[in-house]
Amino acid sequence: MNVHTADAATVEEGLAIQEAQAVLDSESATAVAMQDTLLTPRFYTTDFDELDAIDVTPVRKDWDQLIEEMKADPNKGHFKKDENWDHVDWDGMDPELRKEFIDFLISSCTAEFSGCVLYKEMKRRGKNQDITELFQLMARDEARHAGFINDALREAGIAVNLGFLTQKKKYTHFRPKFIYYATYLSEKIGYARYITIYRHLEAHPDKRFHPIFKWFREWCNDEFRHGEAFALLMKTDPKLTSGINVWWIKFFLTAVYATMYVRDHQRPAFHKALDVDTDWYGQEVFRKTSELSKQVFPITLDIDHPRWMKGLKALQVASVQVDRAKKAGGVGGKLSQWVGSARAAWAFAMLFTIPAKKHQVPVKTRLEPVY
Ligand SMILES: [Fe+2]
Ligand SMILES: [Fe+2]
Fold first, then answer.
1. Which residues belong to the signal peptide in this entry (predicted)?
2. How far is the CA of 197 from the centre of ligand 2 (A)?
3. 287 CA → ligand 2 middle, Å
């Protein structure tokens, strides 16, 4: 058996290695990962038989090429601390930054692992060879990603107990089409987030306060490939991206972008340390994600519309109110929580009703990571 998740050739091997390390895992980090709110990463389950019934014949050529690329495994061995991993002074780190950065790592680890669990389950339940092969390869990557973040957390004396999460975290059921929209977007936005930070730190290396950011380029290429796979899956059935489903696409685009905006604004010290303006970062990531999603979605959100930023800011203020009210408790807290939730719903409606931009989806789906 390999000794590190980065060298694991399969998801099973990667998870076994992490299981063996679980003795070191801390309760508090796992408790954070267990949280299920509108903003925290969730675990998903779906109708696996319906997913298994997909026929990839209409996209066969692109499909085989993508699978070959993934099988070649360009990132095998990459997600491992090596001589480029600088010493991290956790004790000397500003306490606010330390708190937010740990929260960032835990939430990223949970999101990576959420993909791993879903993909692994699909591989286990499926009979369709195209589908099980793809999901096995993607689960392999996500297990490595989650394992690597746990390596970073372990240096701070904490780690997320992934075995415990698999068994105890609540699973949200989504119909396969919602899994496609949500997962496609989370893969592509993941790519856009990682590459935007990577390029920013390439230009400003003095702001790189932790070595994990050096790994982001190869990392985001994995996410890019996963997104490509979901784009091809959606291309097999034109119904998925037309008619009423265009409204669902708009809903998921709005929800995914808005969640990212609110989440990132909860970490001011983290973004200050990176010297990244959170509003700029959000818009930059939305722009890249929108550009990419044109490969399969017939609409993109109008993120330059005057109501866009206003709506996001209103949503963020409302989410702060809800958070404070929850902590305050009592009748006053409950009341304030309701008002906050109503404000959040109104802000979301403000965003959702911005007219979308329509465009033609290209015949050729496949893209390359160019950012
Ligand atoms: Fe990942
Ligand atoms: Fe991924």
1. none
2. 17
3. 19
Per-domain residue ranges for the chain? Answer: 12-297, 302-360
Ligand 1 center from residue 70 Cα (angstroms):
13
Angle at 4 between CA 3 and CA 8, to 5 degrees: 100
Superfamily of domain 12-297 in the CATH hierarchy: Ribonucleotide Reductase, subunit A (1.10.620.20)
List pLDDT tens digits, range 258-307. Answer: 999 999 999 999 999 999 999 999 999 999 999 999 999 999 999 999 99
Query: Cα 77 from chain centroid?
Result: 22
CA of 77 to the centre of ligand 1 (A): 15
Give the number of the ligand closest to the Cα of residue 75. Answer: 1
> Counting beta carbons within 10 angstroms of the beta carbon of residue 163, is it exposed (0 to 12), middle (13 to 18) or buried (19 or more)?
middle
Dihedral sign of CA atoms 307, 180, 291, 274 in order: positive
Give 109 Cα–ligand 1 centroid separation in angstroms. Answer: 9
Three-state DSSP state, 205: helix
Task: Indicate the angle between helix axes 129-155 and 11-21, nearest 10 degrees.
Answer: 30
Could you read off the pLDDT of 319-333 as tens digits, one per residue? 999 999 999 999 999
Q: Which ligand is nearest to the CA of 118?
A: 2
Cα 44 to ligand 2 centroid, rounded to whole Å = 14
- Nearest CA among 181, 194, 229, 220 for reference residue 367: 229
Number of Cβ within a 10 Å radius of residue 130: 18
Phi-psi region of 208 (alpha: psi -120 to 50; beta: other; left: phi over 0): beta
Q: Where are the alpha helices (DSSP H) in 60-128?
A: 60-72, 95-125
Residue 25: pLDDT above 80? Answer: no
Q: What is the pTM of this model?
A: 0.92
* CA 96 / ligand 2 centre spacing (Å): 29
CB 200 within 8 Å of CB 280 = no
